Every structure is written in structure tokens, then in C-alpha cells.
UniProtKB/TrEMBL annotation:
Matching InterPro entries: Glypican (IPR001863), Glypican_CS (IPR019803)
Keywords attached to this entry: Cell membrane, Disulfide bond, Glycoprotein, GPI-anchor, Heparan sulfate, Lipoprotein, Membrane, Proteoglycan, Secreted, Signal
UniProt topology in membrane: Lipid-anchor; GPI-anchor
Listed Pfam families: Glypican (PF01153)
Protein name, as recorded: Glypican-1
Length: 551
């Protein structure tokens, strides 16, 4: 008669640890039901009170309010929500860079437009036929300047040289209407006249200054667009399967465990997000170089290259050049006739409109230097703030989006239960995730989309570097050797050789569906989180004891 009470006592002991801190009464799942419904899921099949969690594949397998279907739905939801967080953060950066581009582009285009308008307003009264019969030459110049600025494949020096050549041909004919001047004669005239600088030093001086100003302005404007495009493409990179599991465990497992009010530990959140955004953090070096290069070129634009003065006074330099030609008309004509011979007399009567230079009109340039200075100051402030974007993104997401607890909080969700989080925070970038305790990261397989964007940053930084010293770079040429794009970013053999063995050698294809079985979310769990295992162990002890007593 002693057997039954002895066995019954053992069975009672066996069942005791299964509840742990849940007490004798199963906790209500009202909070989880409310959350689950708010996320747009049906409440059909959702437990009213906690159930045993042997079926869970991501969350700790203690008592839970989540079924397998709920866990999978929460995992998919956490993935989409986290990706949305990254995109939203990226859109903020894109908006900043796009706004800077828009402001500078508007300023620069306005500068060019005002110069062109000033020319159209003043030249008719200054030069009469010298202008009215050559309007297209001036329009073509401004058109070419705009095309160059918009990154068309144009050689700016050649465009300026072509302008001065065409202008000289037209003006020489108009200033010598009594002669019949053929195209062949004009070719000879240009060769001889250019030796004697018919326009004075203006063409050479304008070519040097305008080329530097336009190269800097074009590269500067393009740099903002490239930066914005890189952020957009990188922000669209999908989460890995391992990251989806980690984000689910971070964001929704505490709800399944009945700890909806417990916030994730800050360092725990940082390790999860750093593991998920390891490839993105590798943009940091080249991203900082781009921001620094834009700041340097901004100083050039507002300083030595003096964009406001150079671009805003193009019409004045042209007027100066025409005046030089008019003042030296007789000596230039004589030297041309000496070198090319006297052209035939024209049968058409000469017009006196020539040539009589109209009354002098004073050209003025309205300075917008203060506006440029403000633009540059604003841009430099924003660029400086964005330098560390990629390595500060995890902390920003944890504090503002995931709503992690404070660093000193020892009653936070640590991935298993409410308590402190002991593991150290990982460094930034792919190579530093080799021992990440929360996300399994293969540091030997960098994301190729992100590697391509790193290369785009390098190309743009190189263009800005050339612009800084006045060198032009063809914006169509992005043929840098992509085959070696990852060579500088791959990890050394002694690091990659330390690949953790916690995952099988044959990895499953990337997918966001929950796998049938994985021990990753179970390892390290306490006995209280594994009621089924402890129950089987104690039942085995009970059976052995009963058998011994029956003997």
C-alpha cells in the first residue's frame, strides 16, 4: 500500500518545475490576443490562457501564449516591420541629401539664368547687329554650359573654344562687310587671329575659372544624388533568415512569454541589430570619405573657385572680350590680311549699322555670395551630421523604434526571460560579427548589392577629389574594375577560418519561413523553460523507483 503514495508524490514533483514563475494558475493571454488582433491577424485559435510551448521554434519553450501559427505570423511581421524601420531611417537621410541637392541646383541654375538674361537685355543696345545677328551663338553657349552641368558627356574646354571661334568668325565678317569672306578664308583668319589674342586674355582666363567652377559644381551636385541613391538601394536589402529569427525573438517573443510590458535590454537589441545590419555598417568608411569630400568641394565652391562671381559674370566677360576685339579691330584685320591675303570686295553695299558701336551700357552683376555662403554652411552641417549614419543606425533603431530599455536596466527582456543581459556588445561591420551571440552571421559571404554600392561611393569620392584640384572626370565612365570590388573588404584567412561551428556546413537557402526544427532558439534555456524534458527525466526516475519497490 506504500507504492501508490510514493509514485504519486514523484509525479507531483515531476510536474512542479514545468510552471516556474507562472504560479499555480495559468496566466491570461489577453494582452497577446489584443496585440495579435491589432496586427491584423484572426483571433481564431489564439489561446485564452498560457499553454505548454514545446512547439515553439524561435521563442523559449516555456509556457506561452503563442501557437506555431502565431509564432510564424509574428516572425513575418517582425521582418516586415524591421525592414520598414530601416527604410524609414534611410528616407530621412535621402530627404536631407535630396534637399541639399535641390537647394544648390536651384541656386546654380538661377545664377546661370540671370547671367544669360542680363546678356539678352544689355547686348542689343550695346552691340546692335553684332549681337542681333549672332543670338544663336550666345544661346548655344549657355545651352552647352547647362548640358555639361547636367552631366552630359561634353568637353567643357572644347565647348568654350568652339564658342570663341564661332564668335570671332561672325564678328569679323560683320566688322568687315565690304569684303566677301568665304569659309576657307575664315579658317585662315582664325589661325592667324588667335595668335594675336583678338579677345584679349578673356578666353583663357574664363576657360580656366569657368572650367574649375563648373567641374566643382557638377561634381558637388552629383555627389548628393549618388549618396541618396546609395542609401535608397542599401535600405532595400532584405533580411536574412537568421536575422528574421533574431528580430522575432527580440520584438515578439516577450509577448508570447506573457511579458508584454518588459522592454528589450539595450545591449541585447544592439547585438541583434548590429548582426542584421553588419553589411550596411561596412559602408561606413567610404560613406565618411564621400561626406568629407563633399565638404571640401563645398569650401572650394564658396572659396577659391568663387562660383558666384565666375558663373554670375559670364555675360560681363563676353562683353569685355567683344570690346577688346572692337578696340583692336584695325590691327587684327591688318595682320589677318597680311597672313591670308586681301579678300575680294563684296558687291553688296556696306551697312553703317556696323559698326557704329552703340552707346555704352554699364553691365552689373548682382552678387548672391551671401546666399551661397548660407547654402554651404547648411550643407556642411548636414554632411557632418550624416558622417556616422551607418554605424549609429543600430543604436538609433534600438532607442527610437524598438524602444529598448536603458543600459543600466537589469529587469529587461534578454531573449530568454526578464533579467540582465551579460554578453558584450559586438563591434561594427561584418568581420566583427563572428562571435555575435544573437545572430548567426556568415562573415565570408558579404552582400553583393552593398559591395556594389561601396564601389559607387568610391567612384564618386574619386570624382570629387579630382574636382577639388580642377580636374574633369567623365561622369559616364563608371567602368572601375568591379571584379575586385570585394577584395579590400574580404576578411583575412585567419579570421574567416574561425567561422563558428554552431551552424551546419550546408546552409539552407535563404527563406523567411520558420524551419521545421532548430536548436538555436533553445540552447542555453533553463530547465524551467523546458518542462517536457524535466518531466520525462523525473518520470523515468519514478518508474525505476516503482520497479525497485515491486521487486
Amino acid at each position: 500500500m506504500r507504492v501508490f503514495p510514493w509514485g504519486f508524490w514523484l509525479l507531483c514533483v515531476a510536474s512542479a518545475p514545468a510552471r516556474g514563475d507562472s504560479g499555480s494558475k495559468a496566466r491570461s493571454c489577453a494582452e497577446v490576443r489584443q496585440l495579435y488582433g491589432a496586427k491584423g491577424f484572426s483571433l481564431s485559435g489564439v489561446p485564452q490562457a498560457e499553454i505548454s510551448g514545446e512547439h515553439l521554434r524561435i521563442c523559449p519553450q516555456g509556457y506561452t501564449c503563442c501557437t506555431s501559427e502565431m509564432e510564424e505570423n509574428f516572425a513575418n511581421k517582425s521582418r516586415s516591420e524591421f525592414e520598414a524601420m530601416v527604410k524609414e531611417a534611410g528616407r530621412s537621410v535621402q530627404a536631407t541629401l535630396t534637399a541639399q541637392h535641390r537647394s544648390f541646383d536651384s541656386y546654380f541654375q538661377d545664377l546661370l539664368n540671370k547671367s544669360e538674361k542680363a546678356l539678352y537685355d544689355a547686348f542689343p543696345s550695346m552691340y546692335g547687329e553684332l549681337y542681333t545677328q549672332n543670338v544663336k551663338v550666345f544661346k548655344d553657349l549657355y545651352s552647352e554650359l547647362r548640358r555639361y552641368y547636367r552631366s552630359s558627356n561634353i568637353n567643357l574646354e572644347e565647348a568654350l573654344n568652339e564658342f570663341w571661334t564661332r564668335l570671332l568668325e561672325r564678328l569679323f565678317k560683320l566688322m568687315n562687310p565690304q569684303y566677301h569672306i568665304t569659309d576657307e578664308y575664315l579658317d585662315c583668319m582664325v589661325k592667324h587671329a588667335e595668335q594675336h589674342k583678338p579677345f584679349g586674355e578673356v578666353p583663357r582666363d574664363l576657360k580656366v575659372k569657368a572650367t574649375r567652377a563648373f567641374i566643382a559644381a557638377r561634381s558637388y551636385a552629383q555627389g548628393f544624388l549618388v549618396g541618396s541613391d546609395v542609401v535608397k538601394k542599401v535600405s532595400q536589402v532584405s533580411l536574412s533568415h537568421e536575422c528574421t529569427r533574431a528580430i522575432m525573438k527580440l520584438m515578439y517573443c516577450p509577448h508570447c512569454r506573457g511579458m508584454s510590458s518588459v522592454r528589450p535590454c539595450n545591449n541585447y537589441c544592439l547585438n541583434v541589430v548590429k548582426g542584421c545590419l553588419a553589411n550596411q555598417a561596412d559602408l561606413n568608411t567610404e560613406w565618411k570619405y564621400l561626406m568629407d569630400s563633399l565638404i571640401v568641394v563645398a569650401d572650394r565652391i564658396d572659396g577659391p573657385y568663387n562660383v558666384d562671381t565666375v558663373i554670375g559674370t559670364i555675360h560681363m566677360r563676353i562683353a569685355e572680350a567683344i570690346s577688346n576685339l572692337q578696340e583692336n579691330k584695325d590691327s587684327i584685320t591688318a595682320k589677318v590680311f597680311q597672313g591670308c591675303g586681301n579678300p575680294k570686295i563684296s558687291t553688296k553695299g556696306s551697312s553703317s549699322e556696323d559698326k557704329k558701336r552703340r552707346g555704352k551700357v554699364t553691365l552689373e552683376a548682382k552678387s548672391s555670395a551671401q546666399a551661397l555662403e548660407m547654402l554651404v554652411l547648411d550643407a556642411k552641417g548636414n554632411l557632418t551630421a550624416l558622417k556616422t549614419y551607418w554605424i549609429t543606425l543600430p543604436g538609433s533603431l534600438c532607442s527610437k523604434k524598438v524602444m529598448a530599455s536603458s543600459v543600466s536596466d537589469d529587469k529587461c527582456w534578454n531573449g530568454m526571460t526578464k533579467g540582465s543581459y551579460l554578453p558584450e556588445v559586438m563591434g561594427d561591420g561584418l568581420a566583427n560579427q563572428i562571435n555575435n551571440p544573437e545572430v548567426e552571421v556568415d562573415i565570408t559571404k558579404p552582400d553583393m548589392t552593398i559591395r556594389q554600392q561601396i564601389m559607387q561611393l568610391k567612384i564618386m569620392t574619386n570624382r570629387l577629389g579630382n574636382a577639388n584640384i580642377g580636374n574633369d572626370v567623365d561622369f559616364q565612365d563608371t567602368s572601375d574594375d568591379m571584379s575586385g570590388s570585394g577584395s579590400g573588404d574580404s576578411c583575412p584567412d585567419d579570421v574567416c577560418g574561425k567561422r563558428l561551428s554552431k551552424s551546419p556546413s550546408t546552409r539552407q537557402p535563404e527563406t523567411h519561413a520558420i524551419p521545421k526544427q532548430s536548436g538555436h532558439g533553445v540552447s542555453g534555456a533553463s530547465s524551467r523553460s523546458l518542462p517536457s524534458a524535466s518531466l520525462l527525466l523525473l518520470l523515468s526516475v519514478a518508474v525505476i523507483a516503482l520497479q525497485h519497490l515491486w521487486r
